Amino acid sequence: SISTLASSKKIAEQPVGNILTLDHLNINHQKGRHDWLKAFYFEFLGCAVDPRKQENLELGKKTLWANIGGQQFHLPEGKPDAQVLDGLVTLSYDSLDGLKERVETARKNMEGSKFEIVQNTEGMMEVIDPWGSRFVLVVGDTSEKDARGLQDGGVSEGLAMRDLTIYVPCGANIAGIARFYDKVLASPVLQCSNDLCQISVGPKQTLTFQSHPEGKVSVSHADIRDDGVVPPEGKPAFLSNYGPHVSMYTADFKATYERVDSLGLAYVNPRFKRRAYSMEEAL
Asked: What is the mean pLDDT of the chain?
């Protein structure tokens, strides 16, 4: 089911805590299918090409970044498969007219993929991407465009990534998730019930955790692998996680790190070359 906030047309200003913005969602695309990647994110959704990955666009391989307002999608190559987000991405637009006009072209360009228009109403479209991830495209207003700045490159057709909903196992401790974001990451919990909690991650942006709508009691967003990376002497070793991830900016990184570290939750992902094993290295 689509969350109340994600499907509403207008969004009121909400309290902003320590999390200032959900900057990007990282999700792998199918290796060798830059054609579908471009057809979906740039030609259909109207995301802007981030110039920092322009070279890869010209090469027709490797990671691309697709910008929408102040947010991004980071889209690395899978090894070789694409990832399917077990959740829902909500994007807002001034108007859906351009998207509706591009549907038939998109179907042709992504023929043979899982691309599908699930719902197409006056103010909302529900779309499945070429590999099975679900997107909700809604009519918003220009106030959703982040006044604090945009990503590099051209202007996207979309205004913002309004909400990212992550599905969790039915019976999961939703209240515990809400407490983590409240007490550890110091961000306002906008609503919390037995099957859903919604966190403020910006003036008009939310991160939602919802019990799986299909009743699943086993849900995993991780892809754990042992890459054999040897940590610096005296530092802990970690397994790599190649699953989807998000990046968020905080107002007080030092205090956030201290709270996370005190609970033993600090994690270094060997998947990435840039690794910080302490607050000093991270800063």
From this structure: 94
Q: Give the Cα separation of 99 and 38 in Å (integer).
A: 15
- Please give the model's pTM, rounded to 2 decimal places: 0.95
Distance CA 221, CA 212 (A): 13
How far is residue 101's CA from residue 157's CA, in Å, rounded to a whole number?
14
Q: What tens digit of pLDDT does each residue of 166-219 get?
A: 999 999 999 999 999 999 999 999 999 999 999 999 999 999 999 999 999 999
